[in-house]
Design goal:
alpha/beta, TIM Barrel, eight-stranded parallel β-sheet, 10 strands
C-alpha cells in the first residue's frame, strides 16, 4: 500500500467529501453549464466549495475536474483547455486544503459507450493519460476514477492514472439489475473487485447510483472479494421531483445513521455523492468520532513523497 494511504488509514475510516455540482449551482452555476470551466472563470467559488468540505471535516477532498477529459470536453467546445482546467482544479483544492486534508483529483467517465463503438479504447486511454498527467502536474496527492459503469473504461482510466505514480482509487456505479447490485454493463461487486484488484488499483469502491443503505451490502461483497481498502460515496437517497426540481429526501442525520453499518461492512473511506453537502459530512464526522489532531495531520502532509510534496 502506498505510504500516503497507510498514513491516512492508520486512524480508522477516512472521511471524504460530498457533492460538488450542486454546491457550485448554489453559488451561481447554471443547470446544464459545464462546471469544470469554473476552475478558470470562477476560481474563488470553486475554492469555496473545497474549503467548505475541509471545514466540515473532510480528510480527503476531490477536485472540480470530473468531466475534464478531452472526449467529454469536445462536446462543450473546450478541448484545448483540458490541461489548464485540470492543473488549476488540483491547485484550487490544494489551496483550500492547506495542511488539513489531502487532495484526490476526480476523473469521471468520457460519456461515450465503448460497447456502442462511439469511441475506441485507445482514444479513451489517451484522454485519461492527458487528464491524469495534468492533475499530477497540478499537485494532486491521489486520483479518484469515479462514477464508472463500464469496467473496460475504468481499467483504461486506471492504466492512465497509474503512470503518474500517485495512489489511484477506482469506483463503479451499482444501480442496475433486479437487486440494484450490478453496474450498467452487468458487472457484479465480486467481478469488479477481482478485475480492479488484478489491474493494480490501490483502492476500489462505489459511488453515486444508490443511497447509503443500498451500498452497505455492496460494500460487504466488495470487501469479501479483495484485500484492498474500500471507498464508498453514496447518494442522499433516490431523487424525487418536487415542483419541477430534483430533491433528495435523505437528511444528513439519516445518512450518517448508516455509517456504522458501512464501517462494519468494510468501508475505509466514506463520503457522499449526489444530494449531499457539507452538512452531511459534519454528520458523518460526528458519527465517525474524533479525527486526528491538526498537528498529526500537518505532520503527515509535510512528509514529502511523489504527488504529496513537502510544504
Amino acid at each position: 500500500m502506498k505510504p500516503l494511504l497507510v498514513r491516512l488509514l492508520q486512524d480508522g475510516p477516512v472521511i471524504t467529501d460530498g457533492a460538488w455540482g450542486t454546491e457550485l449551482q448554489a453559488r451561481g452555476l447554471a443547470i446544464g453549464d459545464f462546471p469544470d470551466v469554473w476552475n478558470l472563470s470562477h476560481p474563488d467559488r470553486v475554492t469555496e466549495v473545497a474549503r467548505a468540505y475541509v471545514e466540515a471535516g473532510s480528510q480527503i477532498i476531490l477536485t472540480n475536474t470530473f468531466g475534464a477529459n478531452r472526449i467529454r470536453m469536445a462536446d462543450h467546445g473546450a478541448p484545448e483547455q483540458v490541461a489548464e482546467i485540470n492543473r488549476r482544479g488540483a491547485q484550487l483544492s490544494i489551496q483550500a486544503a492547506g495542511n488539513r486534508a489531502s487532495v484526490f483529483a476526480s476523473i469521471g467517465p468520457t460519456g461515450k459507450l465503448l460497447m456502442a463503438h462511439e469511441v475506441t479504447l485507445d482514444e479513451v486511454r489517451a484522454a485519461f493519460v492527458e487528464q491524469a498527467q495534468a492533475l499530477a502536474q497540478g499537485g494532486a496527492h491521489g486520483l479518484v476514477i469515479e462514477t464508472m459503469s463500464d469496467l473496460d473504461e475504468a481499467k483504461a482510466a486506471l492504466d492512465a492514472a497509474q503512470r503518474t505514480g500517485l495512489p489511484v482509487v477506482v469506483c463503479m456505479v451499482f444501480d442496475a439489475g433486479r437487486e440494484k447490485d450490478r453496474t450498467m454493463t452487468g458487472a457484479t461487486p465480486e467481478q469488479v473487485a477481482r478485475e480492479l484488484t488484478g489491474a493494480g488499483a490501490d483502492v476500489i469502491g462505489a459511488n453515486c447510483g444508490l443511497g447509503i443503505e443500498g451500498y452497505v451490502p455492496v460494500c460487504r461483497r466488495l470487501k469479501a472479494a479483495t484485500d484492498l481498502p474500500i471507498w464508498i460515496k453514496a447518494n442522499a437517497g433516490l431523487p424525487t421531483l418536487v415542483g419541477g426540481n430534483v430533491v433528495y429526501q435523505t437528511t444528513p442525520d439519516q445518512f450518517a445513521s448508516h455509517v456504522p453499518a458501512l464501517i462494519e461492512a468494510g468501508a475505509s473511506f466514506i463520503g457522499g455523492c449526489c444530494g449531499t453537502n457539507p452538512s452531511f459530512i459534519r454528520a458523518v464526522r460526528d458519527v465517525r468520532g474524533p479525527l486526528p489532531s491538526a498537528e498529526r495531520l500537518i505532520a503527515r502532509s509535510t512528509r514529502g513523497e511523489p504527488g504529496h510534496p513537502a510544504t
